[in-house]
Fold these 3 entries.
Entry 1:
Amino acid sequence: MDESRRDFLKTGAKSIAVAAAGTSLRTWGDQPKILGANSRVRVAVVGLRGRGENHIQSYGALPNVEIAALCDIDDNVMSERLAGVRKLGCQPKTYKDIRKLLDDKSIDAVSIATPHHWHASMAIWACQAGKDVYVEKPCSHNLWEGGQIVRAAAKYNRIVQHGTQSRSNPAVIEAVQKIQKEALIGDVYLSRGLCFKWRDTIGHTPASPVPAGVDYDLWTGPAPLQPFTKNHFHYNWHWFWDYGNGDLGNQGIHQIDIARWGLGLGFPNKISAIGGHFMFDDDQQTPNTLNCAFEYNLPNGKRALLEFEVRHWISNHEAGIGQRRDASAASAETAHGGLGPKEGSYNSVGNIFYGSKGYLAIDNVAGYKSWLGQEQQPGPSAPEAKENHFANFIECVISRKKEDLRAPIEEGHFSSGLAHLANTSYRLGRTLNFDPETQLVKGDDAANQMLRDGDRGYRAPFAVPEKV
């Protein structure tokens, strides 16, 4: 572990010295009740479509959790999820506005699965309200926001888990141990993350009336209020800078996290990203093809390199990643030459670590394999195993042992920060020379401003608090 990362985990990030508009501290009063070893944790799930449904299913399977509240800006989604939660034996309260939910002192923890631009405000408000927090990846919409969540978690002594659930996957944990503790592949000089996902064009969608039952003002929250279009709403918001971070911060954040975890490092010293939005004429703003490089200067005078790549269309596999499927999927891939438009069957999503003694590949859905020596003989491997990231969070909520979190918010800030740094390099068209101590780009005010507010500012009263 490098010194900057160790200091950060002890003390929290240093303040970023870039002025911007913010909001004052909001307080919710008394601290919550103390939970006992046999307590049922009362969880509120915020953001119920897509990943939020996974939150509900995961908490619903845990015996020591009660889904006590649901929050969403869409009445149609709410009614559907409410029916499902009631089948689990829970009778949750329902909210459209998280600020009203946070007034409920019976809620122990808040689980956030909203679009990215809302993550930081909600996580910080929840900490201020005395709630523990599970926040989906990336925890922030820009670099500064991540540091603010870290500070809030420390100040209010909250358990805050980041939604990079691969850190709870036994196969991935074993792979990282093989790399770090056992030096299976020797000195690791290159860590590579892959996000090759077949993604079709989103087309063009004109401004249209807001759907019935949707509070679009609340959905927009801290972002600038734009005319409603279908492409700005369900899922496709990922591809607009005001709300999302492209596939780098969508699927890719998981692979960035594993790539950095395997290296045992925090923030890099130099970042460069180049790419573009290719093939399609549509509304998408974020790149669909992107090459990122993160350079680390190590205390021993050596350097390490982390690479990350996004591809959006037809692609080969690398190191077998994407080829290891069940028998029926494998035969289908063979019939189609290993390529095709079927989401989930032809993707290559994973990590490759290269060292002096061999290389190791982690497949997002198929465990890991390794190859050793110049002859690349098969080495240790393990199949995919089920993770239970939510159970780890709940265990830590009850025990109050932050050190047992598998994805503490400090680690989430590092990995989310890498995505923001690469996107900033791409958007400005230049390499960034970064100081991990101050968390500032050296001699580049424009880059620091973009890392501070995403180049879009904040809309009152939803802004990320300046003082936590």
Note: Confidence is low (pLDDT under 50) at residues 1-25, 330-344.
Entry 2:
Amino acid sequence: MKPVTEEVTDAHERPAPAWSSRNFRRLWRGSAASTLGNEVAEIALPLFALVTLSASAAQASTLRIAQFLPFLLATVPAGLLVDRFRHSRLRLMIGADLGRALLVALLPVAAWTGTAGMPTLYVVVFAAAVLTVIYQIADFALLPKIVSEDQIVDANGKLAATQSAAEIGGRGIGALLVQALSAPVALLLNAGGYLLSAISLSRIRLNAHTAQPADDQPADDQPAVRVSARRELLRGIGFTVRQRFVRPLLGEAATFNLFNEILLLGLMLYAVREVHLSPVAIGAVFTAGGIGSFAGAWFGARFTARFGYGRVLLVTLALGNGAPLGVLLADQTGSESGLLALLCSIFVVMGIGIGIANVHAVSLRQAATPEALRGQVNAAYRLVSWGAIPVGAAIGGVIATQADPFTAMVTGAIGVSVSTLWVALSAVPALRSIHDAARP
């Protein structure tokens, strides 16, 4: 039986909740602090570009490309790094937090000294995103070593619910800070979140099974390392493509991310440049999405036992991915308040569906992937799914520039709704229990 870092209940008893693990609570606190800062930046960063630096539609698109291009370029090397130094994953996460805190703190300093510009913003955002890739891949591979298999869904649910709660508070706080003070001040909170995350993660104590052994170093024979790295990468990609549950999740995630980026870019440009919504109003829209995500992530697991794992995943995906079609009515609202009410309603429904689906999808991927392959498989998964984001940003920028932001917004909404077909036409809906996913 695979060892875990905390005590596990008897097989005939109900598994202990994830909160019973001290290490999980420390991981949760770090994730909460980091996510709160991230959500503040989700509002502050585009407004910093559009308002403080007067960025054009093309520059806003380039900023999003810089923010997510590392998920295309750095995911595979980061996955190999995480698996090769699998006993140093925690230290990789702490180092990534400290690096991101320093980089983000440079932006308000540059703004206050008059040296800020879009090229500087591109470089800083790109470098911070590289560290984010390392952090997230290490985090995905570390969680199953902190909690037992029976606690994974509970742990992911709590992490996802916390992320949604941070989205509720973070984007609202970010919008208020931008409105009352400035975008640079809001970015300082982002840097502080990374710093608090590093402090909390540094308190995690792993047992002897996960402590770093003496041979946890790259071999001196570099050609052998390169051969091994290629073999590991091919194994990860091959598993991702062949696994009947992971493959459709990957297709849905990549399609969703590509078109969701077009949707969000069009929405931001439409709201700021054409409708002239205030930062607080824009923050309210994203906060509404966070409320929906929190409700879905926190209570979604209760539906699984009654309706089946796969059915819940499919229905909630259809709900969340179909909600953005409501933007087709944006031009018919007739007033700013009507548009705000429509967008908030869309994001609440979208949040509920995606909040439930994300918990189930991440847990399904973890259960279906052997421990030794989790870093490689997650790297391959993110290479495609997150790599679609900069592609979507580029396409969205072209549509918004050549046509208009509303057209970009509608195009994104239609594409997001279609992404559900990947799961609907797969083996996932027939999955009754997550434990069935681990069977060959």
Note: The radius of gyration is 21 Å.
Entry 3:
Amino acid sequence: MLSLSEAESRTADLVAAARKAGADAADALYVCNNSTQISVRLGALEDVERSEGEEIGLRLFVGSRSASVSSSDLSADALAQLVVRAVAMAREAPEDPYAGLAPEDRLLRGPAPDVDGDDGADPSPAALRERGEAAEDAARAVKGVTNSEGAGASASRSVIALATSTGFARGYSTSGYGCSASVIAGEGANMQRDYAYHSTRHIADLEDAAAIGARAGDRAVKRLNPGKLSSGAMPIVYDPRVSAGMLGHLAGAITGAAVARRTSFLLDRLGEQVFARGITVRDDPLRRRGLRSKPFDGEGLPTAARDIIADGVLTGWIMDSASARQLGLAPTGHATRGVGGPPGAGLTNLYLEAGALSPEELIADIKLGVYVTELIGQGVNGVTGDYSRGASGFVIRDGRICEPVAEITVAGNLKDMFRELTPASDLVFRRAVDAPTIRIEGMTVAGA
């Protein structure tokens, strides 16, 4: 793994070589990932994985033609050949009037924000194994748990550097840690599986392994003996484990590429009321220790917190430079990319702000509804907003969460679901996309 300064220098040198070879503009991205993962099952070590890899990608432009190439060989000869190949490819590529580097006057200048994404720790495989074993032991200790699918712990570190021919050359590093457990409760035909996990940037923030395991076991046991539910229209309440999925559908609908292709169900809703008043959805790429925090985007533009939804109103699209040019707008600092191709657009630490009601208050007036803890399948149409997902969870009766239920389908349209969404007060930042418990009125449940 190159040091941060070495990575910045290597990408800048590659860009300079591309310009010297005839490119009108170029950028280069270096990514290195090192990770260790330990898996245990039934108290025995099952697997130890160690991966170390680094790649560098070059994108260059000859006029309005471009090409992208990448290599895991960072030797001088390999990079020289990479440049020659990329220039030859670009000269044969079709013209694209929208392709190009980010505007030079919008690049990050001055000190980069500190997102505190790397703690520098390097836990040993033995320490990771101990954490995985503790998670599984706690899960198997829950009464009713009969088998284990395994538990584990992981540690990783990444270095990312970006350079452009417009004078940008910056990098940053991140660390990452995780712990998980997955167990089975019950016997024979009456078996249920569930899991729990936690991921952080700093190992000091990682939840206690025993707590993770106990939660996995408790969840599996609670799912035993699921019943059926009659079909009908009723309120649906999403557990925080699945409620963040609503924000994923929102994110996909507001990317510049989807809008430019006219494949978004929110195509004509810019500046309009999409959620109820009082609802805020915020993207915060500068949250300290956030799982997707970063000081600049995939094109070198500064990142900043932004309300995607403000008081229920859709405030704008998220765009890389190419989609922004296509729409006649300015890029928003949301470019994402890998080493092998052009940027796209994506969000970082996205969350739905908490509401005023506790989860108990949120469901108190529901006579009959469903509390969803798991969603199955990908039945969402990004063009129309039609939504239909397999689900399991618990029946809500007279304001209380009661018996488990499985093999149901919940359906609606995202435009209606967004308008009818009410968040609870239990927002916790645990993932890259977070939401509290949410209630959505008038959805259709197809049961037995």
Note: Residues 4-20 form the longest helix (17 residues).
